[in-house]
Amino acid sequence: MYTQALSNSDINCLVILGPTAVGKTALAVRLAEYFGGEILSADSRQVYRGLDIGSGKDLNEYTVPYHLIDITDLSVEYSVFDYQRDFYKAFAAVRQNGKLPILAGGTGLYLDAVIRGYDMKRVPESPALREKLAGLDMDELRALLYKLKKEAGTEAHNTTDTENRTRLVRAIEIETYNAEHAQEKKHSTTDKDATALRSEVKPFIIGTTFPRDMLRSFIRKRLKARLDSGMIEEVENLHRCAPGLKKGASWERLERLGLEYRFIADYLQGRISSREELEAKLGIAIGQFAKRQETWFRGMQKKGVDIHWLEHNGRREDCSVDRRFEKTLSLLNPLHT
Fold first, then answer.
1. I need a labelling partner for 126 at 20 to 30 A (CA). Which of 15, 169, 258, 323 fits?
2. What's the pTM?
3. What is the CATH number that goes with domain 2-120+191-211+292-335?
């Protein structure tokens, strides 16, 4: 049990993070088997039922209990607030069961929200504000968001949210609400359960990635395998009939999911002319996404988050789960010897 293995430390959670396509799930499962743990996913699309191939759930890899996968449907615009609340509940349940929570994923905002304990509130929608914003174009909306962020002295928003109108409007709505309630010490919609549990998360964070050329190669190989296994058909079926929706998911809803779902939605609507073009464009986009993920993780480090990156010698054998498992144990060894 982890309580014995890590008895000389105050760690109560392991975190496995890194860019897409590096095998975080496989490593997390191996560690969970060794320490007697359960997996808590940190993936913004795996929370949705029906998003299986495109989100890379790979449920066949799980030989231990997992959480925060398939917990909502596409009728819900699941947010980082929702994730933080659900994470703390799952985290508490795993610990109460005497197991080690192992957080694994690549959604930087979700990871940061629970590692650094964002102070979050449920922000209501503002029909009046949305009506005012309806007449602004994307550039004007972005300029307004950056202005609000600058005035509040907060960080630049997640890039994905500035590329999608629905998310951009929501981001402005949140910033406007925060500005209007800046003087309030407490708000009735604060998630009190999440706040109470937040201080209990004491993570040891492992980062894993590969050299850039090798990572791109893994991305291309995985993308081809997913296309061959029915990823296009998955998106087509979601458009026809999606869990939680009376009708299928609209093209706009699928596009808001980003990457695989956005590009395949474009392909199915004829905006991308061939599968070859789809695979090429999507491969480039996923590579760019991986780069943004690594930039986010470096940003977390600059804010004081201690990430222990596994060394990589540039050879394929250093990508194996066994090799990375051994390296992780060597990093943890001083904590329980």
1. 258
2. 0.86
3. 3.40.50.300
Q: Judge contact between 203 and 116, C-beta under 8 A.
A: no
Which residues make beta-bridge pairs with 101? Answer: 38
Q: pLDDT digit string (tens) for 231-283?
A: 999 999 999 999 999 889 999 999 999 999 999 999 999 999 999 999 999 99
CB 89 within 8 A of CB 53: no
**Gap between the Cα atoms of 174 and 263, Å rounded:** 28
Reported as type and span, the H/E element at residue 105 is strand 100-105
pLDDT per residue over 98-120, tens digit each? 999 999 999 999 999 999 998 87
The segments of the chain whose pLDDT lies below 50 read 1-4, 157, 185-190, 194, 337
Spatial separation of the C-alpha atoms in residues 225 and 140, rounded to whole Å? 40
Nearest to 18 by CA among 321, 326, 335: 321
Q: Both tokens of residue 140?
A: 């004007």
Task: Report d(CA 307, CA 87) in Å as an integer.
Answer: 20
Question: Which helix or strand (DSSP H or E) is residue 289 part of?
Answer: helix 275-302
Q: Which amino acid is at 322?
A: D
Residues in the chain: 337
CA 106 to chain centre: 5
